[in-house]
């Protein structure tokens, strides 16, 4: 019954709609919502386009920036695709009853499917169709072609007769070219062969320029760290110098304490307690032999001999063979053990060290019912042996007093073997005070803990903790550079920045294959080659998709505006004809508006054809690709200024990719290019040779950029009206080469 009522209601509503001319007025509010969503999407897509152009042209270099912006682009293109699908499936406002719940559900269902589909399609197309199917030669070329963009941006590489320099690289038309330069040049055989041969000079000049451009900031940061480290070293010196007085003062306080008096008494009385304990043990086993059990009755001074000598045996016979205990009671000793001549001793008489025990005492000791020790320490030890025995160390334990931690191994002994309380406490006190002082010195340094007591200045500044503080201002590139203290501006440049830049060049060049065959020998280089292809093709593809979906959605906005007019007056509004007109106009404008507007300088040069090497190559690239790239270079400068300003709004999600230094479209008067020619930086050794020939005294031709070479280079640059940067960039290289003609 319920379903029949719903059907009857819908039929009645449909009849009213048909009677009104074929449209439900409730569609107007929903179309207005869709219009707002589409306008927001177009603004975001234009913003993404500008952000991508800034990233791809090198304003925000690095694979992380490209990965982040690419992810945003895939999501946005998925949204655009979802709006397109929804327009085809959901926007059926002619003779349809509007059901808001159904429309919301349909849009909510389409969007995640569309976003996921676009992500997967783009990922599969780029990774599996383009990257995986790229040849070894293409990967090798891409590895080098991706270096063209930063080299052009910083002036280490010049495109002859092309209006793009370090100063003009932020123009929108130049950004558009830089974003697609690698993809364009990939089919230009001459350029692909030339760049690898010159890569060392390109990378060297780029790194060198980067170091020099950051010299001011680097040196300012260095001076701040240097002041803190020098102050720390002064504190270290003062602390070491004042340490003896500090120890003496603390020692006076300790000696006046109850702790010291107890310790002194404990140490001096320990051996006496041990001797008394030994006597008690001897008495307990019934032996009259105490600590010094026997001596030959003044006949032999046995304590000065290591064994019983013949003279002693003779004296024994002379005195009737009688030996006496300390009490004077005679003992009958039948035989002695001489370890020097007789290894089979008769142990009825026991010999320990130089002391001989009679059979009666030895027997009592062997048959003792309890250990013959005092506090875990065996009997018969001298003072020195007693205080050095582990049993004494165990009984002594650890004595603590106001930061002092005194153990048995810390004890200093007199010549007699008795511990010297004052020397022992001073030793422990000095150790603790020095350790506290060193902990205080190490604490301000964020890494390392290797400053030790008693270092000289050279040792102090070479510690890893101090060097880490200096290197923190240099970044990862300065990880192996020794940074000395107190450097001047020029000394910092000569001893830190220049060596750092050349080490960076060496590191960068190590990971770049010198040939296709070398690239194939390393899995890391193969992966690097694939990533290079990916980095080369992603920006152009993403820019094309961004423009397509944003402009296509713009046409849909016009369609929906027309739909709102139709819904208001469906009987008289020619919706079909208006939509066809909008579509035709849109296609015409999109395809032609870049060509209708005045050409920018980059377009006038014919850069696309020249960069691809069409005039020199028998295998010209696809006409579709060159046409698309030509269209992009024309279209981007039209859209970019507005889009870049939009992402400058603080609340924009692409705010971090805003280029505050973006320039306007250029108006240079340029000529047509037949081929693209690259002018690259000269090797340092060649620049030194030319500078010396010109009388600028660049020093030995050793290929190393030092302060003398830089001074000569700056002098030459000033004389030619160039920026005295001290960098062998392409412009300086061209001037050096021409100066010898």
Report the span from N to C terminus.
101 Å
Structural class: mainly alpha
How would the global form be characterised? Answer: elongated
Strand runs, count:
13
The radius of gyration computed from the alpha-carbon positions, rounded to a whole number of angstroms, is 47 Å
Mean pLDDT: 80
Relative helix content: 55-70%
- Number of helical elements: 27
What about the largest sheet?
A: 3 strands, antiparallel
Strand content: under 5%
Low-confidence stretches: 289-360
Strand order of the largest sheet: 2-3-4
Helix and strand arrangement:
Layout: H1 2-20, H2 27-56, H3 63-89, H4 100-131, H5 136-145, H6 148-153, E1 157-159, H7 172-185, H8 189-213, H9 215-255, H10 258-284, E2 294-295, H11 310-318, E3 322-325, E4 330-332, E5 350-352, E6 355-357, H12 359-366, E7 373-374, E8 377-378, H13 383-388, H14 390-396, E9 398-401, E10 404-407, E11 412-413, E12 419-420, H15 421-442, H16 457-462, H17 464-471, H18 489-510, H19 516-519, H20 523-568, H21 575-596, H22 601-604, H23 607-612, H24 623-646, E13 678-680, H25 684-693, H26 707-719, H27 730-739
Antiparallel strand pairs: 1-13, 2-3, 3-4, 5-6, 7-8, 9-10, 11-12
């Amino acid at each position: 019954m319920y379903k029949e009522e719903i059907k009857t209601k819908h039929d009645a509503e449909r009849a009213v709609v048909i009677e009104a001319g074929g449209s439900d007025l409730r569609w107007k509010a929903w179309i207005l919502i869709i219009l707002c969503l589409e306008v927001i999407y177009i603004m975001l897509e234009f913003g993404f386009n500008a952000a991508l152009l800034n990233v791809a042209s090198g304003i925000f270099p690095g694979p992380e920036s490209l990965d982040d912006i690419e992810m945003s682009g895939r999501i946005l293109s998925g949204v655009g695709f979802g709006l397109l699908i929804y327009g085809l499936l959901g926007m059926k406002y002619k003779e349809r009853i509007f059901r808001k719940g159904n429309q919301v559900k349909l849009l909510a269902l389409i969007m995640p499917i569309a976003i996921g589909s676009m992500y997967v399609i783009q990922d599969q197309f780029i990774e599996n169709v383009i990257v995986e199917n790229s040849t070894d030669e293409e990967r090798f070329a891409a590895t080098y072609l991706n270096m063209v963009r930063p080299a052009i941006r910083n002036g280490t590489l010049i495109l002859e007769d092309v209006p793009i320099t370090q100063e003009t690289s932020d123009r929108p038309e130049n950004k558009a070219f830089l974003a697609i330069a690698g993809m364009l040049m990939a089919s230009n055989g001459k350029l692909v062969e030339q760049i690898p041969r010159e890569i060392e000079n390109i990378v060297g000049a780029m790194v060198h320029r980067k170091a020099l451009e950051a010299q001011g900031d680097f040196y300012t940061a260095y001076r701040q760290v240097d002041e803190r480290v020098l102050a720390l070293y002064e504190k270290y010196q003062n602390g070491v110098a004042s340490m003896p007085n500090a120890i003496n003062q603390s020692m006076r306080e300790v000696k006046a304490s109850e702790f010291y008096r107890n310790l002194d008494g404990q140490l001096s009385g320990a051996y006496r307690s041990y001797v008394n304990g030994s006597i008690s043990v001897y008495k307990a086993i019934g032996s009259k032999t105490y600590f010094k059990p026997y001596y030959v009755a003044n006949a032999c001074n046995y304590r000065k001999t290591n064994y019983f000598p013949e003279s002693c045996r003779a004296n024994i016979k002379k005195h009737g063979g009688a030996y006496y205990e300390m009490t004077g009671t005679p003992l009958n000793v039948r035989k002695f053990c001489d370890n020097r001549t007789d290894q089979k001793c008769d142990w009825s008489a026991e010999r320990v060290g130089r002391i001989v025990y009679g059979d009666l005492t030895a027997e009592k000791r062997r048959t003792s019912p309890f250990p013959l020790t005092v506090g875990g320490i065996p009997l018969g030890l001298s003072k020195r042996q007693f205080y050095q025995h582990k049993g004494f160390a165990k009984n002594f334990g650890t004595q603590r007093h106001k930061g002092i931690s005194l153990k048995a191994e810390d004890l200093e002994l007199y010549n007699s073997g008795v511990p010297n309380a004052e020397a022992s406490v001073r030793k422990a006190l000095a150790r603790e005070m020095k350790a506290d002082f060193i902990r205080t010195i190490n604490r301000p340094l964020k890494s390392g803990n290797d400053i030790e007591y008693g270092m000289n200045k050279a040792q102090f500044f070479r510690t890893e903790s101090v060097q880490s503080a200096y290197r923190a201002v240099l970044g990862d590139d300065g990880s192996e550079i020794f940074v000395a203290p107190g450097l001047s501006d020029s000394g910092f440049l000569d001893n830190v920045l220049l060596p750092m830049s050349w080490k960076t060049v060496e590191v960068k060049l190590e990971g770049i294959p010198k040939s296709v065959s070398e690239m194939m020998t390393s899995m890391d280089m193969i992966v690097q080659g694939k990533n290079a292809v990916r980095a080369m093709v992603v920006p152009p593809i993403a820019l094309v998709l961004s423009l397509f979906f944003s402009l296509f959605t713009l046409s849909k906005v016009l369609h929906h505006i027309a739909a709102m007019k139709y819904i208001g007056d469906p009987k008289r509004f020619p919706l079909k004809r208006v939509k066809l007109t909008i579509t035709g106009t849109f296609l015409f404008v999109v395809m032609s508006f870049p060509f209708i507007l005045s050409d920018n300088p980059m377009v006038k040069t014919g850069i696309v054809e020249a960069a691809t090497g069409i005039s020199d190559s028998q295998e010209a690239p696809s006409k579709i690709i060159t046409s698309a790239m030509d269209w992009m270079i024309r279209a981007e400068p039209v859209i970019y200024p507005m889009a870049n300003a939009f992402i400058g709004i603080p609340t924009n999600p692409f705010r971090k990719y805003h280029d505050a230094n973006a320039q306007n479209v250029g108006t240079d008067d340029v000529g047509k290019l037949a081929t693209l020619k690259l002018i690259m930086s000269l090797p340092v050794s060649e620049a030194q040779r030319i500078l010396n020939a010109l009388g600028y005294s660049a020093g030995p031709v050793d290929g190393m950029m030092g302060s003398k070479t830089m001074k000569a280079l700056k002098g030459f640059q000033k004389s030619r009206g160039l920026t005295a940067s001290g960098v062998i960039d392409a412009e300086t290289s061209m001037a050096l080469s021409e100066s010898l003609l």
